[in-house]
Amino acid sequence: VTAARRPVRRRAVVLAVLVAVAVVAGVVELLEAQTTPGPARRDPADVASPSPEPTPGSVQPEGGCPVSPEGGGPADVLSSRLVDCPDGWDGRMVRIRGEVVGPRLARGGEVWLQVDDDVHAGTGRAAARPHLRGNGGIGVALPADLARAVSAVGGPGRRGDLVEVVGRFRRVDPDSGEVAVLRASDLEVQRRGGPVGRPTPAGRVPAAVAALLGAAAAVVLRRRAAQP
Amino acid sequence: VSTTFRPSRTDLATVTALVGRALGVVAAAMLVPAALGALLGETGSALALLLGACLGLSVAAVAVGWSPALGDVRWGDGMVAAGITWLAAPLVAAVPLYLSGHFPTFLHAYFDAMSGLTCTGLSVLQDLDHLPDSMNLWRHLLHFLGGQGIVLVVLTFFAGGGGAVGMYAGEGREDKILPNVRRTARFIWRASLVYALLGSAALTAALAHSGLRLPRAAFHAVNLFMAAFDTGGFAPRSSSIAYYHSATVEAVLIVLMVAGALSFALHHRLWQGDGREVLRNIEMRVLLVTTVGLMAVLSSGLVVDGVYDDWVEVVRRGLFQLVSAHSGAGFQSVPSPVLAAGWGFLAPGALILAMAVGGMSGSTTGGIKAIRIGLAGKMVGLIARRSATPTGAHLVSGYHHIERQAFRPDAARAATSVLVLFLFLYFAGAAIGMFYGLPLESALFESTSAAAGVGLSAGVTSPDMPRGLFVTYALQMYLGRVEFISALALLGYVAAMLRGRT
To answer: d(Cα A228, Cα A205) in Å, to the nearest integer?
Structure first.
C-alpha cells in the first residue's frame, strides 16, 4: 500500500525558507567576524613601541634575569621578565608601566591592583610577551591613599588608567605571603582610562533577527512534525 | 564468523535526534548569558549569544524533527550519540565565542569551547581581562553544562531505555545511584543545585572578605563555583586565582574542588547520613594515599629546591596546586612561568602524577580515576598473595565501593585496559609536543593536563601554538572526557556504515 502524498503547504515552505535564511545569516556573520576588529585581531604595532630610553643608573634586563647589580634607580622592566626570573629580581626596586585592570581589592589600609603590561594594554612600550597576545601583568600592593589616584580600572568595554608604578619586587611577599608581586612605593597616572568604543558590527543585528525568526520557524516546524 | 550490519535509517535518525536534543540544550543555555548581556548593556556580546542560541536551536529543531518520536533507544545508539554530542556541542558553543572577537580563528574558539565543555580549563582566549561579563559567564556555564552535564539534561527529560544507559556511560559515567538512569540524573541535578547555592554563597563571602565589592564578588563567585565544582578551571581573570591574593578564597575553592572530585554516588550516601562510606570506600582510600604521598613529594621538592622558605607557604601553595591538579580543576595560584620553571623538578613531577590519576569515577573529574588504580592495585595484591599460597587454593578478595563487592578479574582487566589507554594518550600527546620542539617536561605536563581534563599549563597552550597542537590537545580533551568508549563506538559505527552489510 502506498501512502498518499500530502501536498506541501505554503506555510511550511515559508518556515523552511526562514530556517535556511537564519543559517545563511549566521554563516555570513561568522565569516564577517574574521574582519571585525577585536582583541584577537589587534596588530601589536598599534599599541606597542620600542622600550623607552634607559633610566640612568637603572638595571637593564637581558632575557629574564637582571645582568648587573642593583644601581641607583629602579629598573624599567616588564612583568614577564619578573615572573620568568623571580629569584634574580627578588628585593629589587623596579618600575613597570601598564593598565590597571579588574576590580581593586581593598583590605584595611592597603589595596591590591592588577597591572597588565601586555599587548592589549596600550602601554606605549614593548609589551610583555607580545608574541603570545594573552594577558600578562603583575599584582601590585600599595597603600590605600596611593591607590586613590587610580580612577578607572579596565574591564568589559572600558580601558583602565595607564599607570607607572615604582616598587620592590617580591618573589614571596613577607607581609602577605603572595607570590611574584610588587609592593609599590610610588604610583603615577599617565593617562586616564575610560569607555572603549567598540561598535557592534553592522551585520549583527539583522543576522540575530534572521536567526531568531529562523529558530522560531524551526520550532514551529518541529511541533507540526510531532503532531500525529 | 561475525557479520557487521550497516546501521539502518531508523538508527541514524535516532542518533541524530539524541544529538539534536543535546545541541538544543547547549543552545538554549546561551540565552542565560544573553539576557545578562542585555541587562548590562553589552549589546555586541548579547547579540552574539542570541545569534548562537538561535542557530543552535534551528539546527537542533531540524535534527529532532527529522527523526520519529523517540521510544526505547538501543544502548549502541545512545553510546554513539554521546560520542557525536561531545564533538558537535563545542561547534555550537564556539559560535558566540568566535563572534566576540577574542579569538583569531574558529579553531581557537572551538578549542576553548571543547576545553570548557570537557571541564579542562586550558584557554587560548585573548584579552580575558576586557571580556564582556556575559561572555565570561558563558565560558563558565560551559563547565557547568559539560560537568553536570549536557547528556544528563537529555536523559532527565527525553531519553529512556537502553539508549539512556548508553548515553550515560558514553560520557564516562558508570555509577547508577538510583534504580534508573533518569532518577540518577535528577539526583545529580538536585545535589548540584544545592552545592551551587552553598558554594556560591561561601565564595561570595570569601571574595567580599578579600576586598571585592559585593556585586562583583557575587559575579566572580558564581563563575568560580562552576569552575571549581565541575573541576573545570576557567577563571574570570587572566591571572586565575592568583588575582585574589587570598588564602580564604583558596581554602573555599579547595573544599569545592574536593566536593567536585567525589562521585555523586558518594554524595548520595553522605546525603543519606552514611558517613562510614567515606572511610570504607576504595576510591576514597586511593585518593587519600595518593594525596598524602604526592603532597609529601611536592613539599619535599619545594623545600629541597628552596622555592619557599616558610613552611606555611609550602603547605598553602603546595596543597592548593595539588588539589587543583588531582581534582582536575586546574586553577593556578602562582603564575605559569613560576610553576614551570621556578618549582624545580620534584614538585611539577608530583603535579603530573596527580593530574594523571584524577578523581573518582562518576564525578566531573578526568584522568584515570581512583577506582581503576584501586582495582589494578587489588589485582597486583592478589597475584602476590597467590604466589604465597598453596597450589589450588581459592583466593577471594573484595572491596567496598558504595556497597561490598567481590573482586572480579574481568572488572580489573577492563579497568587496567582503560588505565593503559590513558597512559598511551598522555605519552602520545607528549611525543607530538616534542615533535613540535617542546622539552619533555613541558610536553608531558601539557599533554597530561589536556588528556586528564585538568587545565594547568606550563605555558605551552597559547593563541600562537601550532595548529597541530591545537588539534592534538582538543582530541585529547575529547577522548579523556568520554573515556574512549563512546569514541570507539563512534568509530565502529562509521566503519559499519562504510563496510557493513545491509
So the answer is: 37
Q: Which three cell numbers stand for residue B142?
A: 560551559
Q: Do the Cβ atoms of B238 and A116 come within 8 Å?
A: yes
With contacts defined as CB-CB under 8 Å, which chain B residues touch A105?
A: 210-212, 244-246
Q: pLDDT at position B168, please?
A: 56
Average pLDDT over residues B300-318: 91
Q: Would the CB atoms of B239 and A33 count as touching at under 8 Å?
A: no
> Tens of pLDDT along B66-116?
666 666 677 778 788 888 999 999 999 999 999 998 998 899 999 999 999
Contacts of A119 (CB under 8 A, 6+ apart): A42, A44, A47, A48, A127, A129, A130, A133
**Residue A8 DSSP symbol:** P
Q: State whether B130 and A40 contact (CB < 8 Å).
A: no
Beta pairing partners, A162: A99, A191
Query: The cell 599587548 sits on which residue?
Result: A119
Sign of CA dihedral B240, B246, B247, B251: negative
Chain A contact set for B53 (CB, 8 A): 215
Which ipTM value was assigned to this complex?
Answer: 0.86
Name the closest residue on chain B to residue A219, using Cα atoms.
B61
Residues of A in contact with B238 (CB under 8 A): 116, 134-137
CB contact under 8 A, B128 and A196: no
| pLDDT, tens digit, 9 for 90 and up, residues B441-489 | 899 999 999 999 999 988 889 888 999 999 999 999 999 988 888 888 8
Cβ partners under 8 Å of residue B478, min gap 6: B86, B87, B114, B118, B487
CA distance B98 to A157: 17
Contact B338 A111 (CB under 8 A): no
Task: Flag the least confident range among A79-93, B165-179, B398-412.
Answer: B165-179
Chain A nearest-CA distance from B29, in A, is 14
Exposure string over B285-304, b if 16+ CB within 10 A, otherwise e? bbbeebbeebbebbbbbbbe
